[in-house]
Amino acid sequence: MSLGEQLAPHLPFLRRYARALTGSQREGDAFVRRTLEMIVADPDGFPRDIDPRLGLYAALIDQWEAEREREEAAGHEDRLGRIAPRSRQALLLTAMEGFTAEDAGWLMHCERGEVEELAAEAFAEIERLARTEVLIIEDEPMIAMDLESLVRDLGHDVTDIAVTRDEAVASARTRRPGLVLADIRLADDSSGLDAVQDMLRDFTVPVIFITAFPERLLTGERPEPAFLITKPFQRSTVKAAIAQALFFGQATFAA
Length: 255
What we know:
By secondary structure, the chain is an alpha/beta fold. The chain has two domains: 124 residues, Butyryl-CoA Dehydrogenase, subunit A, domain 3, CATH 1.20.140; 118 residues, Rossmann fold (3-Layer(aba) Sandwich). It is 56% helix and 9% strand. It is built from twelve helices and five strands. A five-stranded parallel sheet has the order 2-1-3-4-5, with helices on both faces. α7 packs across α8.
């Protein structure tokens, strides 16, 4: 099997990680493109003695750290403010991408204990986040209830639980939320994507999509989510995504 064939199944999830790091589809996908260009330019330099997914993430993270160092050297404090700190990287790698603390430590060039400390620090930051109002767009009652419970446990309020596109848009226009959690396929066969696009024509709001088929929304070929959670989800994954979305405070579809 060629190197390209080994890496291809992991690219959608690398895009998810890069978008969550940057808060932007455009910037995240650009990081992925540069990573792939680097691998293509020097395929012999790609490690063959480890899992291909691990090697792929390592290549992107090395680029990420190199960019951080360049920004620090150039004194670009404004840009550094948009770079996720290492604590959030540790949280995303473990809670969202599912790496073990050992593998995340290898990726971040630190020990397992430091990864665990960084992730704990990130969770502590979540507790200090400004509270906001959340609109949940989800037509499966049990999932909606679980999301509502999680959101309230984090200290946020829930403005509404909508099950169709029309309900979601009407609710958002009545009481503008500070965050949206949206399923893709809704009760009347309408689309959570369409509902969010309708909202974003009126105002800007961070959005996290929740879907059982993430690879369909991580192609890099069209406007796609910056924040995306896979069903079935872990509560820690939702917490990490909410923290990162509120950290950037951007709309899901970033130009």
